[in-house]
Design a protein that fits this description.
The complex is a heterodimer of chains A (about 775) and B (about 290). Chain A has three domains: about 120 residues, Immunoglobulin-like (Sandwich); about 100 residues, Ferric Hydroxamate Uptake Protein, Chain A, domain 1; about 550 residues, Beta Barrel (Maltoporin, Chain A), CATH 2.40.170. In chain A, about 5% of the residues lie in helices and about 60% in strands. Chain A has six helices and 51 strands. In chain A, the strands form eleven sheets. Chain A has a 22-stranded antiparallel barrel. In chain A, strands 9-16-17-12-13 form a five-stranded mixed β-sheet. Chain B is about 10% helix and about 40% strand. In chain B, strands 2, 3, 5, 6, 7, 8, 9, 12, 13, 14, 16 and 17 form a twelve-stranded mixed β-sheet that branches. Chain B has a four-stranded mixed β-sheet with strand order 15-11-10-18, with no helix packed on it. The mean pLDDT of chain B is about 85. The chains are: A mainly beta (about 775), B mainly beta (about 290). At the A-B interface, strand 24, strand 25, strand 44, strand 45 and strand 49 of A face helix 1, strand 1, strand 4, helix 2 and helix 3 of B. Strand 44 of chain A pairs antiparallel with strand 4 of chain B.
Chain lengths: ~775, ~290
């Protein structure tokens, strides 16, 4: 009953919004089109502003905009960060299709031009708790081994922190790493790590931009509790062929892009491979030669404009890590994604996109030979269909609606012997699930000063056979199991996820924003390590595991200074999370068919304040971010039911990121990060057993690792720019951990080697000072 | 299998890792009674030792607990233990019986503690063989393992695994009558998940270092219960297998003793097989996998 009445209410609201949006009588016309950069790349979030009306809109993720206003003559400004604003005079007496190309501002000119244009999007937009980074900004940040890394860049933002030294896992506002939805051209990336997390799977050369939502996730996205990281791949140059690449200390990259048909279609291919192991080939030892440790990834994208109203995109990612010790042992893992999209304009006011998405994560571990050995496989596969509609009835309303359907297939682990020896296999039950959602949202300008973005997402999750479900008693002991036939839907969860945010613009330089969102998560990562590992096991919600639920509220003050050169913001948030997953003591999470019996569920909450000062324009760019936060959990069976600090609780977190252009050729950049050490459990007592000293531990997470801090530097020298010179190159020297701080990766408690009655503590650190050099080119 | 994962992680993570001493102040924790002991189906005096836990950095031998009343009951008879030295309590010469559940009762300093353990059957060992790996395959391996004292010999087990599932085995090895696997992490152990009801044919279960032809090698196989098997894994997970952030949060091993005492009381059955190390050409070359 409850569900029905909420559904009805939802439909009524939807109807009202549409009616109110179309109940005007004066003659109205629509200006619509695409905004692109010089290379034909569509610009996401470019601003279209009609000065006479003080009204505007922004381009969507496909660079499309539409605005419907009364007949008349208008001055329309098209602007985008880092590009020169373009003003168009438009006399509107019929619907107009205006495609705009914006050109990058050369930095020297920019200092002269006083930009009176709207660069205060951060202030006037309703969305909060989001940050956008462009690939070119990320490139300036000093990187470990010189490997430019988008995830390492977002770890420097307020409210975001690395799960551990050098790892590409991240926590957003006290959430766990599996609560981040990482979308790469709309395809879910389940494990964004290469090489145990030291590098991320995203090749910066293939990325257009990324946007991180730390709360206030738009209604069109769901399925994860804490954040959305929306990464968009470049489309490829529409005008001419280009190649970009680099030679680094541990990897090389090459990206080729160009038009298939000029201004109609383009293609982009980007590849990257590490070659640390190639040095092994220089070894005179055959055994060393036969060891391998590398990763590679490949990005492919192509798009074609069929007509002014239709455009198709196909993009894919394929990446793999390979580890091999001779013929004895092999281990490889990776992600695949494939996205096919069709943009269609039903009218100037109604934009649509249909996506078919496939994504997969798998790993294979093998030992021995084909005759006798062991093989362990695990994979997770998604098929997703998504239909999204953007409707622009008038400048005051932007309505988004759509639906999503996902078919998940989980094969969490299957280990078996190879060859004709005795059949001794271990299989975790496979299962399937369906996840659907419909959503509707409206960005509604109620008055000149007050804009509200309200939306609702309705999500449904169903477990589907064929599957074996174990039933557990109150003490988590397996009682029996139930076997469900193929296609048999045996369990359904559903939920309403309201999202609302509002912006009250105090003046053109400052605003107050507030948001509330509810998110549900139906798939869970069974991992209790704080470090990333490729051995991910994802499990669906099931009769044994309730979906995770979060309610988050945030309020913020946004203020720009000095002609919008400096953006500042303060945000305060509170996040309450139910059905949070932890695991019993001594849990066995790998190859455990009864894995669900290891789950222990309880509450978690986090709150904090985030401060950001950012400068995005000029010779000096960068930001300072500081987060003061707390994240705690309470789970009945853990820590004797007492509240404990979440492993991701880092009360103080500071990042300073700066990049300075010196003349036309030199750039220096530096980052400094500081954070409180993460909570850990240390031994406080000991006893002896079997000639060993066994620790007795403190309460869960009642100690802290030493504080973490590190400084990185990089210097980039560009080659001389000459007219008619096709090849441009730059040399980048970067130093990770400049002052060689031995940041603790773990504290190891053990017995002294000489005198075993003595117990000692040792600090293990992973990265001392690491200099690296990279040569980048493009032509 | 788990070992392979550990090896992988170690190699990847510690490629560039370094260690240094670390000063840390640890709080004191309350003192717990630590009970260790066992009863087996061997006719002998079975021992229970009582000690106390201490602060982690106390760095003194564990304090013993004297003057306790200790007894073991097999469901019919009660065997009282006498304190033969400080903190060490012993039964009269007796043998446990397969199938019986033994209950340990202790009264110490006004508190009572108890633990129960079932004595499981152990299949006999038919024979043992000796195996070695050909390290010349990998020169690096030998350099890396400089602390391995050659010759290094593996003990291979031949025995029939009973058809009932749920057997748990520990293996000890003696060289010339001296226990070589005298530290917990030198024990080898396995459950019967993959081998239930099969014949264990030349299965590698232990190793001996610095072996000479003619040495007497005794392989001891113990059949223990599931709780103890898990306890051993937990002890090792919190000590030599500890992988820091790659593992879950640490937790105290869960023994079987009531009233908050640490340790374990085990009832087990044991079989042994003794053989003489043969000439080197009779050693079995083991496959790398």
């Amino acid at each position: 009953m409850y569900k029905n009445s909420s559904m009805k209410r939802f439909l009524i609201i939807a109807l009202l919004v549409i009616i109110s949006a179309s109940s005007f009588s004066q003659k109205k016309y629509t200006i619509s089109g695409f905004v692109k950069d010089a290379a034909g790349e569509e610009l996401i979030g470019a601003t279209i502003y009609i000065k006479n009306l003080e009204a505007g809109t922004v381009t969507n993720v496909y660079g499309f905009y539409s605005i419907t206003v009364n007949e008349g003559n208008y001055d329309v400004d098209y602007s985008y960060m880092g590009c020169t604003t373009l003003s168009e005079k438009i006399s509107l007496n019929k619907n107009q299709n205006i495609n705009i190309t914006l050109f990058e501002t050369s930095k020297t000119i920019e200092e002269v031009v006083i930009t009176a244009e709207r660069k205060n999007e951060n202030v006037v937009k309703t969305e909060m708790s989001t940050i956008k980074l462009q690939a070119k900004d990320i490139k300036r940040i000093p990187a470990l081994f010189g490997e430019v890394d988008v995830i390492k860049a977002i770890q420097l933002l307020p409210g975001v922190q690395a799960t551990g030294e050098g790892f590409s896992g991240f926590n957003v506002r006290g959430g766990s790493p599996d609560q981040n939805l990482i979308l790469f051209d709309e395809a879910t990336v389940y494990n964004a790590s290469h090489l145990m997390g030291f590098f991320s799977v995203f090749n910066n050369d293939a990325i257009k931009d990324l946007k991180l939502y730390k709360g206030d996730i738009p209604a069109e996205y769901g399925g994860r509790l804490s954040s959305l990281l929306d990464i968009r791949m470049k489309e490829g140059n529409q005008k001419e062929w280009h190649a970009t690449g680099g030679l680094g200390l541990i990897s090389s990259r090459l990206t080729i892009e160009g038009p298939i048909v000029k201004d109609k279609g383009s293609v982009l291919i980007a590849g990257r491979r590490t070659y640390a192991d190639l040095f092994l080939l220089l070894s005179s030892d055959d055994a060393v030669k036969s060891n391998q440790l590398y990763f590679y990834d490949l990005n492919l994208k192509t798009n074609y404009k069929i007509s002014d109203k239709d455009r198709i995109y196909v993009s894919g990612y394929f990446g793999r890590d390979v580890l091999k010790f001779g013929d004895m042992f092999g281990f490889d893992w990776g992600n695949y994604t494939l996205t096919a999209r069709w943009n269609h304009l039903f009218s100037e006011k109604l934009f649509s996109n249909f996506s078919f998405i496939y994504s997969k994560y798998d790993y294979i571990m093998e030992s021995g030979s084909n005759d006798i050995g062991f093989k362990w496989t695990s994979n997770l596969e998604d098929f997703k269909f998504k239909a999204d509609f953007n409707y622009y009835p008038n400048p005051s309303n932007t309505i988004k609606f759509g639906l999503e359907a996902i078919h998940h297939h989980f094969n969490p682990g299957y280990a078996h012997s190879t060859g004709d020896s005795i059949d001794n296999s271990l299989r975790m039950p496979e299962s399937s699930a369906l996840e659907y959602a419909v959503y509707l949202s409206n960005e509604h300008k109620l008055t000149k000063k007050l804009t509200v973005n309200y939306g609702l997402r309705v999500s449904v999750f169903q477990n589907m056979g064929e599957s074996t479900v174990y039933n557990f008693d109150d003490s988590y002991q397996k009682i029996d199991s139930t076997i469900y036939d193929q296609w048999d839907i045996f369990n359904t969860f559903s939920g309403l996820e309201p999202r609302i945010s509002l912006n009250y613009t105090l003046n053109q330089r400052s605003s107050i924003k507030a948001s509330y969102s509810r998110t549900k998560q139906y798939v869970h990562l069974a991992s209790n390590s704080t470090a990333g590992s490729p051995l991910d096991v994802w499990l669906p919600s099931s009769p044994n595991i309730e979906p995770q639920l979060a309610n988050q509220a945030a309020i913020g003050y946004f203020r720009n200074f000095l002609n919008d050169y400096y953006e500042t913001s303060v945000e305060v948030y509170y996040k309450d999370m139910d059905n949070q997953i932890d695991f019993r003591d001594h849990a066995s999470l790998l190859l455990n068919p009864e894995l669900e019996g290891e789950f222990r569920v309880g509450d978690a909450w986090s709150y904090g304040a985030e401060f950001l000062i950012r400068k995005q324009q000029g010779k000096f760019t960068g930001w300072i971010s500081y987060t003061l936060s707390k994240a705690e959990r309470k789970i009945p069976e853990i820590n004797s039911g007492m509240v404990y600090s979440s492993s991701y609780d880092r009360p103080h977190n500071l990042a300073i990121v700066g990049s300075l252009d010196l003349g036309k050729r030199w750039n220096i950049a530096a980052t400094w990060v500081y954070s409180t050490g993460s909570p850990v459990t240390f031994p406080t007592g000991r006893y002896e057993q079997g000639n060993m000293i066994i620790p007795i531990y403190s309460d869960r997470n009642s100690y802290r690792m030493p504080d973490y801090h590190r400084m990185d530097l990089s210097i980039t020298l560009k080659g001389k720019e000459k007219p008619n010179k096709r090849l441009n190159s730059e040399l980048n020297i970067s130093v990770y951990n400049v002052y060689n701080r031995h940041n603790a990766w773990m504290i190891y408690f053990g017995q002294d080697e000489v005198d075993p009655t003595i117990t000692t503590a040792e600090k293990v650190y992973v990265f001392p000072i690491i200099p690296s050099i990279t040569w980048n080119f493009n032509f | 299998m788990k070992k392979i994962i550990y090896i992988t992680f170690i190699l990847l993570i510690f490629i560039s890792a370094c260690t240094e001493d670390f000063d840390v102040e640890l709080e004191s924790t309350y003192i717990r009674l630590v009970i260790q002991g066992s009863i087996s189906d061997v006719r002998t005096a079975h021992q229970i030792s009582l000690t106390k836990s201490a602060d982690y950095f106390s760095n003194t031998p564990a304090p013993t607990v004297t003057g306790a009343t200790v007894s073991i009951n097999d469901g019919e008879n009660t065997f009282n233990l006498t304190e033969i030295s400080d903190g060490l309590y012993e039964t009269d010469t007796m043998a446990g019986e397969v199938g019986k559940t033994y209950t340990l009762s202790i009264n110490s300093e006004g508190e009572t503690y108890s633990a129960s353990s079932k004595l499981n059957f152990c299949a006999p060992i038919d024979s043992i063989n000796f195996g070695f790996y050909d390290y010349s395959y990998n020169e690096e391996e030998i350099e890396d393992s400089a602390d391995i004292k050659e010759p290094y010999l593996y003990v291979l087990l031949n025995a029939m695994e009973p058809e009932t599932p749920g057997d748990y085995y520990l293996w000890n090895v003696y060289k010339n009558g001296v226990l070589e696997s005298d530290t917990l992490h030198e024990l080898n152990f396995s459950d019967d998940y993959f081998i239930n009801g099969f014949y264990m044919y030349d299965v590698t279960v232990q190793y001996v270092e610095e072996v000479s032809v003619g040495d007497t090698i005794t392989l001891e196989m113990q059949s223990v219960n599931e709780e103890y098997y898990n306890y051993i894994i937990q002890l090792l997970s919190e000590t030599v297998w500890n992988m820091g952030p790659l593992d879950g949060p640490p937790a105290n091993p869960v023994g079987n003793i009531s009233n908050g005492a640490m340790g374990f009381f085990l009832a087990y059955s044991v079989v042994q097989f003794t053989d003489i190390v043969p000439e080197e050409d009779e050693w079995i070359e083991l496959e790398w996998y």
